[in-house]
Write a structure and sequence with these properties.
Blueprint lengths: L1 H21 L2 E2 L3 H4 L7 E2 L2 H21 L2 H4 L6 H32 L8 H28 L2 H5 L1
Antiparallel strand pairs: 1-2
Helix pairs in contact: 1-3, 3-5, 5-6
Length: 153
Amino acid sequence: MTICFGFFITISYPLTIWFTMANCCRPVSYFWNKFSGAKGTYINANQLFLALGIINILSDFIVLLIPFPRIVAPQMSIRKKMAICGIMAVGVFACIASIVRIYYLSLFMNAADVNWLMGPVLLVHDRAVHCNRLRLSTTTSASCAASLPIRFN
């Protein structure tokens, strides 16, 4: 049941992003014509990215918690439990990187005078990008680490 729920959340997240981004402007041409005086509506991109980041954090924690019922099972040796917890610790690090990314994105969103704050905002944006790269690389490493015992046997 837990795996099915995690699968549903993991699949629904990119679909939600795709449908939201495909329908963010009415009419669609307003996206590239809004500065030339075109009439239309556009969703608040800052709030969208913040919401997507929060959903991403929640999905990271859900994926992180899926194997815990198996870890606490009594038939697994302590050595295997410790190895799996080590792999999961890398996943916790990815969750922390996602939270730091949200913090820097919120700083970027709350900038009142973009021209005056462009220098610090670029630094903040750069940190947010690095946090995202760090999150992606750690999640990839954690998912690949599960196959390491096979290589060393």
